[in-house]
Amino acid sequence: GRGTGVDDAGLLRKRTTIDTALKMHRNLLDDPLAVAVALGGRELAAIFGAVLAARARSIPVLLDGFVATSAVLPLARLAPHGLAHCRAGHVSAELGHRELLRELQFAPLLDLEMRLGEASGAGIAILLLRAALACHAGMATFAEAGVSGAD
Description:
mainly alpha, 3 strands, 7 helices
């Protein structure tokens, strides 16, 4: 997609590159790990590895944007619960991100049509999560607040 502002010529180059790569590696498309190796770059491999390591250590992960979500798709296909420790911080305006989240059965925390990059969606989602945790931790029970029963 356009990312943070690719013009029409740049978008055409991206699409042509992807189409060429898919044709070149079409015999690998049934193997998620082979697809990741053949079509992903080092940055996608790093995201994949970090998310996999976080899974092994039970560390939660907040995915930010289309690229990060794409990087972990092979993990979801290799292991049905491989992304159980992940949540989607937001759905970006990037073409295909909403469909990818749907396929992964992720409900994004935010839908602000962002495509700013730099993990800006996750930054905002973290603030939302912190506010929810503070509300939960600071909320009095009915008994503590002196709220009476159903009458």
